[in-house]
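USER:
Working in pairs, take the chain set out below, taking as long as you need, and write a paragraph about the fold.
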Amino acid sequence: MAKLAGRTAVLGVIAVAFCGGAFAAPSPVAVRDGWIRPTAIGADGAGYLTLVNHGRSADTLTALSSPDAAAASLHESKMVGAVMTMRRLSLLALPAGGSVAFKPGGLHVMLHHMKRALRAGDRTVVVLTFAKAGRVRAVLRVGQVATPGPMAGMTM
């Protein structure tokens, strides 16, 4: 009788885990090649990555956060005439079956007022919130100080 009760309990736990969403379908949005330069405590850092939408419908990036920063936001740098400008974006469209690359001199994740220093070899997490896919976790590896920056190759 005790053996049967034990098996029933195990099956009950499995059923609760399955019905409770523990085995939810993977997100159609994937993150590749995430990186950031070393950053001091209190400073802002720019992170880069590639978003890939494996889904059949477009999605929209609506929010960003990081446990290692006081705030996170989406920005775009671009040359306007002879001046490099940067502006905050509130949303970013991610086409169905497409990808969007964040790279120096273009789109980037701004991590504001870092809560800890990031050194080469460390990792930090950014949580990306999409209108359809929900929350997607991105891991950014910390590269070397000499990693080319957003201004590399630009003349002012």
Observations:
- The radius of gyration is 20 Å.
- Residues 2-19 form the longest helix (18 residues).
